[in-house]
Amino acid sequence: MTVQRARLLEGPIVPTLAALSAPNIVASLLQSGQSVVEAAYLGLLGTVELAAVALVFPFFMLMTMLSAGAVGGAVAGATARALGAGDHARAEAVLRAAILIALVLSTVMAAVILGFGRMIFTALGGQGEVLAAAMVYADRLFAGIAAIWLFNMMASVLRGSGDTVRPAFAIAAVLSIYAATAALLIFGLELGIAGAGFALPVAYGIGAAGLAAWILSGRAGVQARLGGVPLSVLGPLARQGGLAAVQSTLTILMALVVTAIVGRLGTVWLAGYGIGVRLELLLIPVIFGIGGALIAMVGINVGAGQRDRAIRVAWTGAFAAALVVGVIGLVGAVAPALWGGLFTEDPDVLAAVTGYLRIVGPAYGFFGLGLALYFASQGLDSLAWPVIGTAVRLILVMAGGFGLLAFDLATPDLVFAVVAGAMAVYGLFVALSLRFGPWRPADPALRTAV
How far is CA 165 from CA 66, 80, 109, 160, 399, in A? Predict the structure, then answer.
């Protein structure tokens, strides 16, 4: 048994989880920094550019959630379970499957946005200059989306092996490359919003090449070997990744529903909401900092037959995520200008950001709880309840939001109150359904009898 595997299976839960989470959290904050840098650059161009990116941003986040959190999480979980069982050949097959899936799904996503982007953004309320700018940005970004998929999938394999440090260094390199490249393209070459679209694939392409070089060196926890992708590996990945993808799609659909409602309140409110919701969506990578560690530690324990320990790890990480995200939400609610001021000095847009964060920010802790439990469920193969919880949240948002529109009551405060309430219900639903469902403690009498 390797030292790393022994630590995950036998080490104290809190210190081990903290050690795994720390590089992930740093990496997630750096990845969030990319979006902050982008919005800051675009804020210098004007409100039209900010509103345009608000239309495209949910689709970029969907791609990130799928490649790093949903399908990537399934890949990390499968890698962890294979290594927990000592099956290195299966872990190598998972790596090959991850590369194949990245190429296929990135092609599909690019085709959807390049082919139907104008129709989608128009349906979300994009018009005139805002719609034109959104198309310029989206076409450049999604033409190179394969680079981001490959980066995130290879990073997921490394995290599943228990290596959270090298993906963190790779993300730091990507952020540095992006900041320099975006500044050159947007301002130096005067490409404007088109330069922002080009910069992301360039930065992630270099990062993906770096991760590939490390894996091919033979020093990674999973070796790269030529071979096929057996259905015994691809099938479970497709099942779990597909279910997780439903979760991610529902989350982004919810953001699109609110975007469509707020977009009808005017450009200023759309720009302000785009800045405010960016904090919420950027919490997903922060939660993933803990969630990625949960997938590895929970998955390896499940693979080794230690399910009770895996569940204890899951609850520990979930409550830690709720605490971290809850504190961020409260800071945003109390001092919204700290976030909004990073992107704009327009007093009307800042007022819209303030309205959003003061109402929705206090509910972020519930969001962190539910999403961290979703990540842990990828290791415990209990994804159904987190996905159902996300569907419940979407139904509440749609019923409340469109109900307000139907009765001509759709003020920003009421719309944001619906969003906050649905977020709280989501976290509580997922926690209670798992606690009294698949994660309920075994009956001590039965355990003794066995």
Answer: 21, 16, 29, 12, 43
Return per-residue pLDDT of the chain as tens, 450 residues.
Answer: 455 666 777 777 888 888 877 777 777 777 666 777 877 787 788 778 877 887 888 788 778 878 887 788 889 888 888 887 788 888 899 999 999 999 999 999 999 999 998 888 888 777 788 889 889 999 999 999 999 999 999 999 998 887 878 888 898 899 889 889 989 998 888 788 888 888 999 999 999 999 999 999 988 888 888 888 888 888 888 887 887 788 777 877 887 788 778 777 777 777 778 788 777 767 776 787 788 788 778 878 887 778 888 898 899 999 999 998 999 999 989 988 888 887 777 888 888 888 889 999 999 999 999 989 988 887 787 888 999 999 999 999 999 988 988 888 878 888 889 989 999 999 999 999 999 988 987 654 434 332
Q: List the alpha helices (DSSP H) in 161-265.
A: 165-183, 193-216, 231-263
Confidence (pTM): 0.72
The separation between the first and the last C-alpha atoms of the chain, rounded to the nearest angstrom, is 28
Q: How far apart are CA 409 and CA 227, in angstroms?
A: 59
User: Residue 448 belongs to what H/E stretch?
Assistant: helix 444-449
Token pair, residue 8, equals 């995950």
Token pair for residue 197? 């679209």
CA distance 370 to 319: 10
Q: What does the buried/exposed string (b/e) look like for 61-99 if buried means 16 or more CB atoms within 10 Å of the residue's CB?
A: bbbbbbbbbbbbbbbbbbbbbbbbeeeeebbbbbbbbbb
Reference 377, options 420, 423, 325, 433; nearest CA is 433
Question: What distances in angstroms separate CA 72 from CA 68, 184, 370, one per listed residue?
Answer: 4, 31, 18
On the CB side of 305, CA atoms within 13 Å amount to 2
